[in-house]
Design a protein that fits this description.
It holds the Pfam family adh_short. There is one protein chain. It is built from 11 helices and 9 strands. The protein is α/β, with parallel strands linked by helices and about 325 residues long. It has one domain (about 25-315): Rossmann fold (3-Layer(aba) Sandwich), CATH 3.40.50. The strands form 2 sheets. A 7-stranded parallel sheet has the order 3-2-1-4-5-6-9, sandwiched between helices. It is globular and about 65 Å long. The model has no long low-confidence stretch (mean pLDDT about 95). The structure holds NADP nicotinamide-adenine-dinucleotide phosphate (NAP).
Length: about 325
């Protein structure tokens, strides 16, 4: 075999292995490698991590995973009783002391109070090593029916409150001359368009623009954009619709098409421990779909033409594909 045949063969095998991994894994390949050979979650032991939206779902599961590894936590959200339940679960599964977990009742939409909340966390722990911007609401609505007020409200919560809190953190990092780490729970819908969630997709995409730019301005700052695919949480209950009043009210039942929030949180914690920039996770076909969409957008268009948009809706909402 000549040099060029050998090179061609290696490239061929490389692509075959990649495609097989896209089909088999429940995360991107970098995260899979870090899960097996990278920094363990335990490398975060003793750090102070602030998780917004820790009263349920992914934020709650992440808190429990991190607590098991001795991470000190600030848990914030609006439902204080649910935060207390998260705290008790964290304490039950770890050797943390009650003072290692701060419960902070906080509405992310009150941007003018962010600085006060921030100072309270710093006062309690003396520092904040990692800020996890996880609070957010999803959406189910047809693009053309969405009131502009909904676009604005969704951006207020999923984008502007995140940007505002992060600006306070970034100034704190600069003032105290340490690396710092900002984490954002984005979504697969932050990487590609999906049907039935126009404002949400726009908001999650906006986060990537904001945080990629931040990373360029502050190269030493660690920025992690974690992008889960469909995950079993209560998110459908409180999702926005096309009108400002009311919530979607659906249930995201456990299904082989959804990741458990525990697995999602484990992968997220691994991504944080390894300071990865962008990670994604989800059961088949999410990684395959994301890789094809990002690397071969034309193939994605052909696939969508063959399968129809309904196939994508079914992947996201197995139980309510038509609404
Ligand atoms: N589940 C999925 O399939 C999926 C997929 C991709 C991305 N995500 C993202 O994952 C993140 C967490 O969602 P989840 O699925 O875990 O849903 P969830 O269980 O509904 O969690 C949402 C969290 O955000 C908090 N929150 C909502 N509005 C808030 C506000 N105004 N102020 C403070 N906290 C607020 C909620 O707490 P309170 O109600 O107590 O305030 C709750 O803790 C979101 O950013 C979502 O976009 C989820």
């Amino acid at each position: 075999m000549g040099f060029f045949e050998l090179l061609g063969f290696i490239v061929f095998i490389y692509f075959i292995v990649n495609i097989v991994l896209w089909l088999c894994l429940d995360s991107d390949i970098e995260l899979f490698i870090k899960e097996k050979f990278g920094q363990p979650i335990d490398s975060l032991r003793g750090k102070v991590v602030w998780i917004t939206g820790a009263s349920s779902g992914i934020g709650k599961s992440l808190a429990i995973v991190l607590a098991r590894h001795g991470v000190k936590l600030c848990l914030s959200a609006r439902r204080e009783d649910e935060l207390e339940i998260t705290k008790q679960q964290c304490l039950a599964e770890s050797s943390l002391k009650p003072s290692d977990i701060l419960v902070l009742k906080m509405d992310m939409l009150q941007n003018d109070k962010h600085e006060d909340y921030f100072n309270r966390v710093v006062q309690h722990f003396g520092r904040i090593d990692v800020l996890v911007n996880n609070a957010g609401r999803s959406q189910r609505a047809l693009w053309q029916n969405i009131d502009l007020q909904v676009d604005r409200a969704l951006f207020e919560l999923d984008v502007f409150s995140v940007v505002n809190l992060t600006r306070i953190y970034v100034k704190y990092v600069e003032k105290n001359s340490f690396e710092g780490h900002v984490v954002v729970t984005s979504s697969g819908a932050g990487l590609i368009g999906v049907p039935n969630s126009g404002s949400y997709v726009g908001a999650k995409h906006a986060l990537h623009g904001y945080f990629d730019s931040l990373k360029l301005e502050m190269p030493k700052l660690n920025v992690t954009l974690f992008c889960p695919g469909p995950t079993t949480t209560d998110f459908l209950k409180t999702s926005f619709t096309h009108k400002l009043e009311g919530e979607y009210g659906g249930t995201a039942e456990s299904s082989s098409k959804r990741m458990t929030s525990e697995r999602c949180a484990f992968l997220m914690a691994t991504s944080i421990a390894n300071k990865l920039h962008t990670s994604f996770a989800g059961p088949f076909p999410i990684p395959f779909l994301l890789y094809v969409s990002l690397y071969c957008p034309n193939v994605r268009l052909v696939l969508l033409k063959l399968l129809g948009t309904g196939a994508l809706t079914k992947i996201r909402d197995p139980e309510k594909s038509g609404k």
